[in-house]
């Protein structure tokens, strides 16, 4: 008999409330909000502070930040503002402040991702030996548990060794979120090895790397097509014997384009709740989209809080 995954109730407020509870026992962290010159960025900071996730430090042109708050009816009087002349300077100063350990996390405001990340990568004190990568956390009504998806924001066409770090970063986040042995599906268009599809070869290599302990802490399988990675029914119809197929906790996409499109389809067509964080640096980075609503920013602040507290005990 084919088992069918149960469907969740699509209640975004309830999902966000449960997510926030994961960090309720931890004190807020000092978080730099980089160039928050749009209402969404300020609302995210205000709501994250109200939920005791972060103590925001607003880094950007003070006059623009105050004008944005005034025009939007937002009260940012409790927050420290560090004045900068423009977005590039905001990113550079934020990276320096993080390197000096004045904040434990950074959240992207209303500047471009490449501008934000360039400043982080250029700061030697923030780098580790591991590749930096972005991980989305999705709660999809049609799936029975949260999904982590990587990398849809930073690494455009990662090579095999970069994918190794992308996988390990995602596994590490799953551990921080309480999943001690996440099931990792390495995605491709098909579930068999095809030398004409490079991602199938990378998937097979990553699984063998896990066998040889080059990747640890997760259960890997791949290549898996998206349908049999998340659907027990699809996996059983195709006679796929796997401890991951139909039960994936983590989806690793072949490249940024496929991960980004997959993530945005889940958000805009499937009603998924989304948050995201960057791992691989000395501090967590809440890498929100400028189109994200306040709930997404709050969820991302929660992820940054959990990672920052983990880093207090386990230096990256």
Describe the protein's architecture and organization:
The chain has 316 residues and is of the alpha/beta class. The chain folds into 2 domains: 1-128 and 281-316, Rossmann fold (3-Layer(aba) Sandwich), CATH 3.40.50.10950; 130-280, 3-Layer(aba) Sandwich (Isopropylmalate Dehydrogenase). Helices cover 41% and strands 17% of the residues. It is built from 11 helices and 11 strands. The chain has helices spanning 12-21, 39-50, 62-72, 87-99, 113-121, 160-176, 198-211, 226-230, 232-237, 256-269, 294-313; strands spanning 29-34, 54-60, 80-83, 105-108, 133-139, 147-150, 183-187, 219-224, 250-252, 273-279, 285-286. The strands form 2 sheets. Strands 8-7-9-6-5-10 form a 6-stranded mixed sheet, with helices on both faces. The protein has a 5-stranded parallel sheet with strand order 3-2-1-4-11, sandwiched between helices. Helix 7 (198-211) links the parallel strand 7 (183-187) and strand 8 (219-224). Helix 2 (39-50) packs across helix 11 (294-313) and helix 4 (87-99) packs parallel to helix 5 (113-121). It is globular, with a radius of gyration of 19 Å.
